[in-house]
Design brief:
The chain has one domain. Helix 6 crosses helix 7 and helix 10 crosses helix 11. About 70% of the residues lie in helices and about 0% in strands. The protein has twelve helices and no strands.
């Protein structure tokens, strides 16, 4: 792999980082808005990693947040233990990175173990199996007292910040996009287009489906670890079926197979959901109507129905922006 020129994507990331940092120091961007931006960046990792499975390889996974839960609990448990043993160390950030990577690797191992038996299935059967495994993971954490059980894992050190999250998001997009451009990525795309034809030309379809599943689980684990260290809590309800559906909606709204679409949808839908929550709360306070924040999901769902009716290929379809221009594979 040869770097022929500085990728536009990384230039845009650096510019975005600089602008947000300047606006934050000028108090134009407050802590609340920065928190929503951090959540959006975490959802970028989740959406692009799920797109590798659903959009690029053509599988249908419904348990993606289960892998995020594995990454969150493993990384949070490790960092919490280290923090208790030594509250302040010069290498805290290195420890944090190690814990996040460990959480990603744990999620990848779980994805590998789940992938081998389940990815021989197709279509609805695969969706049901992945949904079941996702719920098994959530229920296991809900019943394990060693990680807090239904109370969740508390006291997680707040290591995640705008800098660490944007670096992790950018690296995730670069790695996933380069994987798609590689020969392995082309094999995954061939499975999406026609699995039978791919098998006939000698592609080991099971191997590449498991590979996509494992890579997707790894990055989901990274995202889960970042989320846990951002809100300082890992709770089973954060990684249930509804959250998996939210990530699934992002990739279908952005465009199945489009990394650019996943990024735009992750930002757009995160801000939209939060904006609807605040808008409904303000309406309830102003009118005295007995409406709660859960009504935002009704409006959210209606907007998505309109998107699917009038642009069912999503925002970007399978197209990529020229900004997502990464090193070519030779």
């Amino acid at each position: 792999m040869k770097l022929q020129k500085f990728p536009r994507f990384l230039a845009v990331v650096i510019l975005f980082y600089a602008v947000i940092e300047i606006l934050f120091k000028l108090d134009v961007v407050n802590g609340y808005l920065l928190h929503i931006i951090n959540l959006s960046l975490i959802y970028v990792i989740l959406a692009t990693s799920l797109n590798l499975i659903n959009g690029i390889t053509g599988q249908f996974s419904l348990g993606h947040m289960g892998f995020a839960g594995v990454g969150a609990y493993v990384s949070a448990a490790l960092s919490t233990l280290v923090f208790k043993l030594s509250p302040s160390k010069p290498g805290d950030m290195l420890v944090f990175v190690g814990c996040i990577v460990a959480g990603g690797l744990a999620a990848a191992v779980v994805g590998l173990l789940i992938g081998f038996p389940s990815l021989r299935l197709k279509g609805d059967y695969l969706a049901i199996v992945t949904l079941g495994f996702g719920e098994i993971i959530r229920t296991a954490f809900n019943n394990l007292d060693v990680v807090g059980g239904p109370r969740g894992l508390l006291g997680i050190p707040k290591f995640s910040n705008f800098t660490t999250i944007i670096i992790a998001s950018a690296l995730s997009v670069v790695v996933i996009r380069n994987l798609i451009q590689s020969s392995h990525g082309r094999a995954m795309l061939s499975i999406r287009e026609n699995e039978v034809a791919a098998e006939l030309v000698g592609i080991d379809t099971t191997r590449y489906k498991v590979m996509a599943f494992t890579f997707g689980a790894f990055f989901a684990g990274i995202a889960g670890g970042l989320l846990a260290h951002l809100i300082q809590l890992a709770h089973p309800t954060q990684f249930g079926f509804i959250k998996s559906v939210e990530v699934l909606i992002m990739i279908y709204a952005g465009g199945v197979g489009s990394i650019t679409g996943s990024i735009l949808a992750a930002f757009g839908l995160t801000f939209l959901s939060e904006g609807l929550r605040l808008g409904i709360r303000s309406l309830a306070d102003a009118t005295g109507l007995p409406i709660g924040g859960e009504w935002r999901m009704v409006i959210y769902a209606l907007l998505l129905i309109f998107i699917m009716l009038f642009r069912n290929e999503g925002l970007m379809g399978t197209k990529e922006s020229k900004i997502i221009e990464l090193p070519e594979v030779e």
